[in-house]
């Protein structure tokens, strides 16, 4: 069906953009509820249907997360790994494009 095909195509696109060669883990509330439809084949066909990049996607394992508490388990593991607290993210670096735009504004 259309939703499964679009879901698989989007997952495949994301796998390519992020270079997820270690695997794709589909989570959230929808995937476990439609697991039989995901296993039927249309999802993985759409996932891999990327022309010359299809062979790369054929090597990427795809799994569905069925544990409803995955986010909590991950947060607990992160907290255990950083008992003194998680460091604040560093300030994002500005890109060349951002610096050029700021420079143009100053010249006006």
Describe this structure in words.
The protein has one domain (2-85): Hexokinase, domain 1 (3-Layer(aba) Sandwich). Helices cover 57% and strands 6% of the residues. It has seven helices and two strands; from the N terminus they run H-E-H-H-H-H-E-H-H. The protein has helices at 2-18, 30-33, 35-39, 42-48, 54-58, 70-81, 96-107, and strands at 24-26, 62-64. A two-stranded parallel sheet has the order 1-2. Helix 1 (2-18) packs parallel to helix 4. It is flat and about 60 Å long.
What are the key terms here?
108 residues; mainly alpha; Hexokinase, domain 1; two-stranded parallel ribbon
Count of discrete alpha- or pi-helical segments spanning 4 or more residues: 7
Task: Please provide the count of β strands.
Answer: 2
What is the number of domains? 1
Beta fraction = 5-15%
Order of helices and strands: HEHHHHEHH
> Portion of residues in helices?
55-70%
Structural class: mainly alpha
The CATH topology assignment is: Hexokinase, domain 1
Mean pLDDT: 89
CATH architecture: 3-Layer(aba) Sandwich
Low-confidence stretches: none
Q: Sheet with the most strands?
A: 2 strands, parallel
Which CATH top level class fits?
Answer: Alpha Beta
Question: What overall geometry do the principal axes of the alpha carbons give?
Answer: flat
Radius of gyration equals: 20 Å
User: What distance lies between the first and last C-alpha atoms, to the nearest angstrom?
Assistant: 54 Å
User: For the largest beta sheet, what order do the strands appear in spatially?
Assistant: 1-2
């Amino acid at each position: 069906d259309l939703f499964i095909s679009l879901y698989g195509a989007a997952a495949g696109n994301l796998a390519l953009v992020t270079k997820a060669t270690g695997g794709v883990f589909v989570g959230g509330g929808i995937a476990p509820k439609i697991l039989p439809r995901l296993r039927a084949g249309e999802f993985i066909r759409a996932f891999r249907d990327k022309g010359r990049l299809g062979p790369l996607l054929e090597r990427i394992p795809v799994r569905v997360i069925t544990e409803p508490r995955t986010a909590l388990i991950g947060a607990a593991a992160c907290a255990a790994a950083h008992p003194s607290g998680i460091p604040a993210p560093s300030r994002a670096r500005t890109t060349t494009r951002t610096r050029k735009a700021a420079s143009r504004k100053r010249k006006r």
